[in-house]
Amino acid sequence: MLNENLIFKKANDMSDIFTYLKEGHLPFSGGTDVLIKLKEGFLKNNKVVYIGDVPQLRGISIVNDKVVIGSAEKITNIIEFFEEKNIFPALKNALLTIGSVQIRNQATLGGNLGNCSPVADSIPMLMCLDAVVNLVSSENKRKLPLVDFPKGVCQNALLTGEIIHSIEIPLSESKNIQFYRKFGQRKEVAIQKCSVGAYIEIEKDIVKDARIAIGAVYTRALRVDDAESYLNGKSLSEDVIKEAATLISAASKPITDIRSDEEYRKVMVGNGFYEEMLKAVKSEK
């Protein structure tokens, strides 16, 4: 059961949020992570504030060639928006692997980011898409590349008094290959064993801009700089793809736990990239 000493507040606007933050309340919007932690006693803080109905944190729009997503927007609504606009297919697929339909109807993108678990399904593809996080406090606003937001296991770059306001994802008309591959016990309702995402811009059959990110193989999701640098300027032959996959495996520093072992994760994160890239390249021909 929940802590009987729990102090619950509901914010109606941004001013409410900052007032409650100063009083030491922990903000949440969907609650799919926070409520479990409260129930299991993993959170020392007994003061929480619900921010999911604050209008400034909701909505999805296209502004100046960027998609702007409010941090409290539900995962299901984001998936439907991507489907309607025919954009970000790999990120849409990543979001579809989060929990179940019921969880996605309640969970929010800001919550998935803020929790900053190494196994968060949204983060690798957001990194690949060069997403930016808009952070706000009562005194300040700042933008942070999403790749710099995770700092460790369930640790992020939020400063005291800050919340995630929204996430920006740039749109691109460049020819590209993009995919997200997750390894788990099941396709849904399963925490990932490891994952790999990629966004590869191609110009005249040469890689112009390679972005690759991996999840659940380090203390946080991360971009694979060595593999990206190796691919840039090359044609996507099978040998080139195989070498990039080797570099991806080498960049991973997984652990052995109840879900999987270190060697499996290291091998599969590279194999996942190799298989998905080869499939994508063959489909282009």
Automatic annotation (TrEMBL):
GO terms for molecular function: FAD binding; oxidoreductase activity. It comes from the Bacteria. The keyword Repeat does not apply. InterPro entries: CO_DH_flav_C, CO_DH_flav_C_dom_sf, Diverse_Substr_Oxidored, FAD-bd_PCMH, FAD-bd_PCMH-like_sf, FAD-bd_PCMH_sub2, Mopterin_DH_FAD-bd. Residues 1-174 form the FAD-binding PCMH-type domain. The keyword Oxidoreductase applies. Pfam families: CO_deh_flav_C, FAD_binding_5. Keywords: FAD, Flavoprotein, Oxidoreductase. This is FAD-binding PCMH-type domain-containing protein. It comes from Muiribacterium halophilum. The lineage of its organism: Bacteria, Candidatus Muiribacteriota, Candidatus Muiribacteriia, Candidatus Muiribacteriales, Candidatus Muiribacteriaceae.
